[in-house]
Amino acid sequence: xxxxxxxxxxxxxxxxxxxxxxxxxxxxxxxxxxxxxxxxxxxxxxxxxxxxxxxxxxxxxxxxx
Length: 65
Prior knowledge:
Low-confidence stretches: none
Number of strands: 4
Structural class: mainly beta
Order of helices and strands: EEEE
Number of domains: 1
Distance between the termini: 11 Å
Helix content: under 10%
Shape: globular
Largest sheet: 4 strands, antiparallel
């Protein structure tokens, strides 16, 4: 997951990843938390500024690298 990827939550809400926080301080670290700007309605569990596990959303389109 990277900044700019289009993601989808469980009930179909879509958003764009705006921030990625790595689990460990080295380049090969897995993603620990992500922040998403939702397009339209946000999921019920979301609060503004919340960073959450990448396992709670799925990537549906990757950003250009």
